[in-house]
Recover the amino acids of this structure.
């Protein structure tokens, strides 16, 4: 939006969105490739996977791939990076631009013929916006502009491991079932050796085999990412206080466990800047364990062993749609920069954040309460007792303003694709056996019409 533009009021924007929906079919004719990217956590759901290419067109069977395959819809370019970099591109932080190379500082728009873009068409995050993100966006955009955010797809965060038993056999997924308590003990550093009696019940091995007395080598994500956010939210919720300390919910894993390691992490705890490198680290390091997005683990060759947790598999017991309702949602609220006293994520109203001016009044920034998916069977929660327990929610984001007239209808279609049955019915990258699940819009949740009305020129 430039200085000569006329700002459209919220009610007018809503009316325009409703009219657009009424006149639009499934296709949104545009020859321009839509450019975006972000989190590796749900990348396979949205765009499929291309291990060797950070910028690539959405693949066959993925949400964006099916969208593009429908008549009249444009192709979609996805930059596979991290929440941290994607947020910098979205918010317009200094040194980051949609035109810059992916995955370093941008989404590589020029490489797919979109040298005209000054902002991404969409962004994917594995965690919701926080207060700092919103301030960064406000400070680099015209007054009154805001990021649009809606939850779209859930993913199971698996506990991956690489173990050899005393007989020299690879310990497999079917032989390992961790309890929450055992995971809490490992990632807080209370248990440091695989032969610790506190882990004995996790293993069902071949007769005569045992787990050798070797150190536990922990692999973790070193970048800011949604996998760490949701994993830490689960730990903070289920672990409680351990030796007078708690896990902190954060996108940065070193912050998650800082209370337990005031002098820094042990030398055999190794950080990786992506799911792919973390999975490779587990595969190449005997006696290692880490947390990974399940679908990305399955796409890596060779794929790691994935443990059951509390008797539930991230594959067999995850993949059915999770229902969100009005009770599940908050509008115009973000994750606070300060956690609750027990380390769980706190939320705050955007208008209450110091430094925020002209907070949005439309319902275009939607947040699923982290407490409602931090563990199964929470009253009002979205994760049933029969589900695998460690769950992440990914978000689709865009810009409320500044969308080019040639892209606008297509962006509206892309953001509503995960809730459009003609698209989701053709998607093969989400569902049972994938580690990924759609979100079903239940009673009084947001609508696709609502999403469309949030996006204008």
């Amino acid at each position: 939006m430039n200085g000569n533009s006329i700002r459209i009021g919220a009610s007018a924007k809503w009316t325009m969105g409703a009219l657009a929906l009424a006149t639009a079919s499934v296709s949104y004719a545009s020859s321009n490739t839509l450019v975006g990217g972000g989190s590796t956590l749900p990348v396979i759901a949205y765009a499929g996977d291309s291990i060797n290419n950070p910028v690539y067109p959405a693949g066959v069977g993925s949400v964006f791939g099916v969208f593009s395959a429908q008549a009249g819809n444009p192709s979609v370019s996805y930059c596979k990076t991290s929440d941290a970099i994607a947020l910098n591109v979205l918010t317009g932080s200094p040194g980051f631009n949609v035109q810059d190379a992916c995955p370093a500082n941008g989404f590589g728009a020029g490489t797919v013929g979109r040298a005209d873009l000054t902002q991404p068409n969409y962004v994917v995050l594995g965690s919701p916006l926080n207060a700092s993100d919103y301030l960064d966006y406000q400070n680099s955009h015209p007054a009154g502009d805001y990021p649009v955010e809606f939850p779209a797809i859930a993913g199971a965060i698996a506990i991956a491991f690489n173990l050899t038993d005393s007989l020299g056999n690879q310990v497999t997924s079917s032989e390992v079932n961790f309890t929450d308590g055992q995971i809490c003990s490992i990632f807080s550093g209370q248990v440091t050796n695989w032969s610790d009696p506190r882990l004995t019940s996790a293993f069902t091995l071949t007769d005569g085999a045992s787990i050798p007395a070797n150190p536990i080598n922990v692999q973790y994500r070193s970048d800011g990412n949604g996998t760490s956010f949701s994993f830490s939210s689960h730990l903070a919720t289920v672990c409680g206080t351990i030796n007078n300390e708690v896990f902190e919910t954060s996108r940065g894993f070193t912050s998650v466990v800082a209370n337990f390691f005031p002098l820094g992490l042990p030398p055999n705890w190794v950080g990786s800047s992506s799911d792919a490198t973390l999975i490779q680290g587990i595969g190449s390091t005997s006696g290692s364990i880490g947390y990974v997005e399940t679908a990305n683990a399955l796409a890596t060759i060779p794929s790691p062993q994935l443990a059951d947790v509390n008797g539930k598999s991230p594959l067999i017991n995850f993949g059915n749609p999770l229902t969100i309702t009005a009770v599940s949602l908050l509008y115009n609220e973000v994750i606070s920069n300060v956690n609750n006293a027990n380390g769980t994520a706190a939320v705050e109203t955007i208008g209450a954040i110091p430094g925020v001016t002209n907070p949005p009044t439309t319902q275009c920034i939607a947040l699923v309460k982290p407490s409602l998916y931090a563990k199964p069977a929470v009253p009002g929660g979205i994760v049933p007792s029969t589900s695998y327990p460690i769950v992440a929610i990914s978000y689709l984001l865009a810009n409320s303003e500044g969308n080019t007239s040639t892209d606008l209808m297509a962006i509206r279609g892309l953001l509503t694709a995960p809730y459009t049955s003609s698209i989701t019915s053709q998607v093969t990258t989400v569902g049972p056996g994938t580690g990924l699940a759609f979100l079903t819009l239940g009673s009084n949740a947001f609508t696709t019409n609502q999403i469309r009305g949030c996006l204008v020129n």
Summary: The chain has a mean pLDDT of 92.
